[in-house]
């Protein structure tokens, strides 16, 4: 089943307690498509970069089977750039610098060859851009997954709420769920969000795992305990890519299969944090992924004597 991802392809400059790096490949769509590439092809990308974006990085995406026909390269302009510094706890960070550059007026163009995609991943961009993508598809995909963040809840709340009835799954973190609903209790917050439109809600809790809500059903996936978290940048996007990639591969959107997809997404995210940027998820093997999924299974398996 084909997957279409729309979002940012960018440069990141990162500093963590373990070191720092200058410009490396980043952006929500980069992490999503790389993660999804281990599960699904065609794996189509719609994004925009400037002419400063090196061909070698595009080659990495293409080497993973990512179709870049929808990647706009704007001549004479610069690629979106984000710089951040993480605190010692690795859960909080400061944004040092943001340069919107080509993302400031991104106009997503959907190639004709992408029009029949069965699965759509709306990576973290403004709700206005995300809605533009939905409106420009000639056929509604089987499943639309939306990722958002606190910035859009704050400055584009009306646009976001207008978009929510058009999507099937909303992915956000616990802080954002509380911000969107005004409710600290995540079970109630998820119920409120489902009334806004999405049938399914995934609330990420970082090192404490993820919650999946649908109707009156709840599933909790733990995070894998790691001795060191080297760089959490892109972990949430990597999770989303693994989640929708697995669903597209299996072509099964049942709640039981979504539970499996959450585990696969969590496994992919656990790889992402082991090195800077997207470095770790570029060279994974199928055996590594299955072994990591097995660790998640062992982590939560138990028996009960009644």
TrEMBL record:
Annotated Carbohydrate kinase PfkB domain residues: 21-279
Top-rank taxon, per record: Bacteria
PROSITE patterns per the UniProt record, alphabetical: PFKB_KINASES_2
Cross-referenced SUPFAM superfamilies: Ribokinase-like
Listed GO CC annotations: cytosol
GO molecular function terms attached to this record: kinase activity
Claim: Cytoplasm is one of the keywords in the record: no
UniProt keyword annotations, A-Z: Kinase, Transferase
Protein name: Sugar kinase
Source species: Rudanella paleaurantiibacter
